[in-house]
Amino acid sequence: MAATLRQRLPIEIDQTKQAASVASSDSGSDSYDDSHLEPFTPPTFTVKDLLGAIPAHCYERNGWRSFSYVVGDFIMISSIMYAATHIDPNFGAKGSVLAGAPGIAAKWALWTAYWAMAGWNFTGIWIIAHECGHQAFSTSKTLNNIMGLILHSLVLVPYHSWRISHSKHHAATGHMTREEVFVPLTRSEKAKGTGRKVTVDGIDFDELLEDAPLYRLYHLLIQQLFGWPAYLFKNASGQAFYPKWTNHFDPSSLIFDARHRSDVLLSDAALLVVLAGLAVIFRPYGWGAMIKYYGIPYLAVNHWLVMITYLQHTDGNLPHYRAGEWTFAKGALCTIDRNMLGPVGPYLMHGICETHISHHIHSKIPHYHAWEATEALKAYLGEYYTSTDENMFVSLWKNFRTCRFVEDGDEVVFYKDALGRAQRRVVYASVPSDSGVELDA
User: What residues contact residue 278 under an 8 Å CB cut-off, 6+ apart?
Assistant: First the structure.
């Protein structure tokens, strides 16, 4: 299926004109000719408008229905774990079913299939816990927090600590100075460097290689494997004003208020309990077993979480706002709905990629109602509903290479690539005079 992106219009680009604009882009945004880009006019919806577009029953939460998805996820996880216990005895160099080189190949093919499936299922557990943090699991705050603490701890997430910082993300999505995660670098911040500079004889190799495919691939792999722990341990991709090593485990971190102390410590304690439990369970089988059954799926969860959240808020077609233009309604639309690998997203990951706009408009909508809410929003928002069916791995590579920085001074900004080229330009709606006075020429 050809990839389509709503809110894009057919654009005929004059290649000569584009080349001239690229050549002059290094000197700053003032010299960049963006007249060929697709125009974007900031929306004027209010929160009341957006909430009113969603059918009323979509806001209803049912704890029993939500719990059925937890049961379903754990049935799948326990089934594939049980199946995985039969891999090593039956396949391998001396496998009872298939031996020799074919057995070895089959063995690692089956473990790879287990890791893929377990990674998806573990991520599904993470997503239901995420709903608990938004109080979308049920109408009971107590039940939501108990379930969230259990489920998130099982995938080594500090539930309350994340819940608190994540609520700030929802309160200021797309805000250049209040957003909590995936905050774009500005042109001036990019000029200061990334902190990984290697300079030889005055040559900045980071700047020299920053657009080289292999160099970008290396940093993309680092982001995908370690971006989630880096966010938890040192607030990676967050606001620059946080002190170094601001993290989700220390109740004195600036992320939290004094009233959050007990919640943060409870989350830490729950993680220690899970880590101790893993050590006890796998002690008879060794570290290798723990890595195969739990460790690699955990790394897969890291990958999927970073990929999903990065692509939800990083795209050349999504605006970011400074204080003079930002509103909650505008910020809620600073995201994009995507399809995650055919049925994987809708079923195993509970639609978190496919229905993310509705989630930002009202985060208490449970995932099983988000589909209908999304259809209603599509009809209401028109061109301001943004979605794509482009393969997410293609989008990840494309956006990681091209979404490099935004301009410093503008109130509405779009990502630009390393050469200063954007995909959209801002055009403000003209406001007619309402004075009622006709002036003679």
Answer: 290, 294
Please give the Cα distance from 224 to 345 (Å, whole number).
18
Q: Which residues contact 286 (CB under 8 A, 6 or more apart)?
A: none
Token pair for residue 40?
A: 């974007």
Q: In Å, how far are 22, 208, 315 from 19, measured between CA atoms?
A: 5, 20, 22
* pLDDT per position as a tens digit, 177-210: 999 888 999 998 887 765 444 444 555 555 656 6
DSSP secondary structure letter of residue 351: T
CA distance 157 to 123: 11
User: Do 338 and 390 form a contact (C-beta atoms < 8 A)?
Assistant: yes
User: What phi and psi, each to the nearest 5 degrees, are found at residue 412?
Assistant: -120, 125
Summarised one tens digit per residue, pLDDT across range 304-321 is: 999 999 999 999 999 999
Instruction: State the residue for tokens 């055009």.
Output: 427
Q: Cα 90 to chain center, whole Å?
A: 39
- Vertex 361: Cα angle to 359 and 363 (nearest 5): 45
Among 406, 404, 408, 399, smallest CA distance to 418 is for 404
Exposed/middle/buried for residue 63 (C-beta within 10 Å: 0-12, 13-18, 19+): middle
Instruction: Round to whole Å and give the CA distance between 277 and 156.
Output: 12
What residues are paired with 200 via a beta bridge?
203
